[in-house]
Specification:
This protein has four domains: 161 residues, no CATH class; 118 residues, Beta Barrel (Lipocalin), CATH 2.40.128; 100 residues, Thrombin, subunit H, CATH 2.40.10.480; 102 residues. The chain contains two helices and 46 strands. It is globular.
């Protein structure tokens, strides 16, 4: 594309209600029209006829209505202040596009106004009075002209127009795409503004997704062609009386040592059993193997110590933390012959049976991340040690919730919740802006941070990559998250659908 203004260009709108007390410029009315051609952004065709914020044209230039969500769909952040006006900043984050649909059909022409407030794009002030294609305000939304200067230089978009396909705009940020999983099962129940899920589990592995379907089915489907699916397992019915008749057990997937497993619990909490099934490379499965009885792990007793032995790693099943090397097991244990002894991290020699205390600091759980083990002790501080030297060091000297989802570590980046705020090691300011942290999770090479907020335009989920970069933000809460390589699949608790996000490698 040559570096010039195209005959049909897009203008970005930012969903900002204009209550400016600093009216630096006099507003002017201008006549605008609705375009007669098709407009597509990131593969999404826009319904302009009943859009509350429709595309408009002015001076043969197309103006595109960018709402709050639409702005972030194309990788932009906005800030508004009565004192300083509007600021637009390019980012690499995005989330699904939502249209503002009206019941009233739009007419062919309207009047818009020029804004009376200050505007900055990526920190640079815009003199709207001198712009050949000025910014406009229509239905309390600010519109930006997509000249090469804005669209390419400032926002890094690709766009083109022809009479056959209309106007097409594509940003370079990752866009969540709706997945149509065959026979996908999710039973969501909401109570007291909270969601509870039964079923709906899935996991990414390679170029495929494994997921729970209706009537106890487990499917495998290709990510590039979801209609290429096959059923690989039939789960048993649950025999618990408080479940509705015909309810199947719920599987929990995990990848361990490059292989896929799922567990399910059948029966009651105290008398039921947990089973594990391995999915082989040819999609055959192993016979279910019992891995514990009841809701809690069965301790393993040896040499006067009680170990929570039923674990093989972090899982949503009934498992305690454990990390295994070629020669050693790292486990949580307490001494049987010591009254009221607290659990701590021990190292068990698999050949000799020798048991070595790693740290005298009590620990209820731990996480193995990138060659090191991390844990929160009873002083609410975060500690860690490399399994190569077993030297325990203080990682975070702040009050952290004693909870497995209160911290995460990836590539030496530590994210933790303290006083309801989220911090990252080496940064004094919190990552969130007043929102209360609900959980910090790791999925593959990503860290997912969730927030509780009653503010409609606040972010409820932020995802960081292994380099510590923000790569996705959304005001929606992601549930049931799985990641593999450069892909993330999640369940959206707002529209009850599953989305796939593919990031640049």
């Amino acid at each position: 594309m040559r570096k010039k203004i195209v005959s049909v260009l897009v203008s970005m709108t930012i969903f900002i209600v204009l209550f400016s007390g600093n009216k630096a410029f006099a507003a002017q009315n201008v006549k605008v029209n609705l375009p007669t051609f098709k407009v597509t952004i990131n593969g999404k065709e826009i319904n302009n006829t009943y859009n509350q914020y429709p595309f408009i044209t002015y001076k043969n230039i197309t103006y595109f209505p960018m709402t709050y969500e639409g702005c972030r769909y194309l990788g932009l952040e906005t800030k508004w202040s009565d004192k300083t006006g509007l600021e637009v900043i390019k980012t690499n984050v995005s989330y699904p596009y939502s249209e503002y649909v009206s019941k009233t059909k739009n007419s062919g022409s309207y009047y818009a106004t020029t804004p009376s407030f200050n505007i900055k794009i990526n920190g640079k002030a815009i003199n709207n009075q001198k712009e050949e294609y000025p910014l406009l305000v229509f239905r309390n939304v600010t519109y930006f002209p997509l000249t090469w200067r804005f669209g390419a230089d400032e926002f890094s978009w690709d766009y083109h127009f022809n009479h056959a396909t209309g106007l097409e705009i594509n940003s370079q940020n990752a866009i969540p795409k709706l997945m149509g999983l065959h026979d996908y099962y999710i039973n969501e129940q909401k109570s007291d503004h909270k969601s509870y899920y039964y079923g709906g589990e899935f996991i990414l592995f390679g170029d495929s997704i494994y997921y729970a379907g209706n009537k106890g089915a487990i499917y495998k489907a290709a990510l590039d062609n979801l209609q290429n699916y096959r059923k690989i397992y039939d789960l048993p019915l649950n025999d618990i009386h408080y479940f509705p008749e015909g309810t199947y057990v719920q599987p929990y997937f995990e990848v361990r040592n490059g292989e896929i497993y799922f567990t399910y619990h059948i029966g009651g909490a105290s008398m039921g059993s947990t089973y594990e099934v391995k999915i082989n490379s040819d999609d055959t499965v192993s016979e279910p193997a019992s891995v514990g009885i009841g809701a809690a792990p069965s301790p393993y007793f040896t040499n006067g110590y009680a170990f929570d032995w039923s674990s093989t790693g972090d899982s949503r099943g009934y498992k305690a933390p454990r990390y295994e090397t070629e020669n050693f097991d790292y486990l949580i244990a307490f001494r049987e012959n010591v009254e009221n002894d607290l659990s701590r991290i021990y190292k068990l020699n698999k050949t000799t049976g020798e048991i070595t205390l790693i740290s005298d600091k009590p620990a209820q759980s731990f996480k193995f991340r990138d060659g090191s083990i991390y844990f929160i002790s009873n002083d609410n501080k975060l500690y860690g040690f490399s399994v190569s030297d077993n030297i325990v060091k203080t990682i975070v000297d702040k009050n952290i919730y004693d909870h497995s989802e209160a911290y995460e570590v990836i590539n030496s980046n530590v994210y933790y919740a303290s006083d309801e705020k989220v911090y990252k090691n080496g940064i004094e300011e919190p990552l969130n802006f007043g929102e209360k942290c609900s959980s910090i999770q790791r999925a593959g090479d990503y860290v997912i941070i969730k927030f509780e907020s009653t503010v409609s335009d606040s972010y409820k989920t932020i995802i960081y990559n292994k380099d510590g970069e923000e790569i996705l933000k959304t005001p929606k809460t992601m549930q049931i998250i799985s990641a593999y390589s450069n892909k993330i699949v999640y369940y959206d608790d707002i529209d009850s659908k599953v989305y796939l996000v593919t990031f640049q490698k």
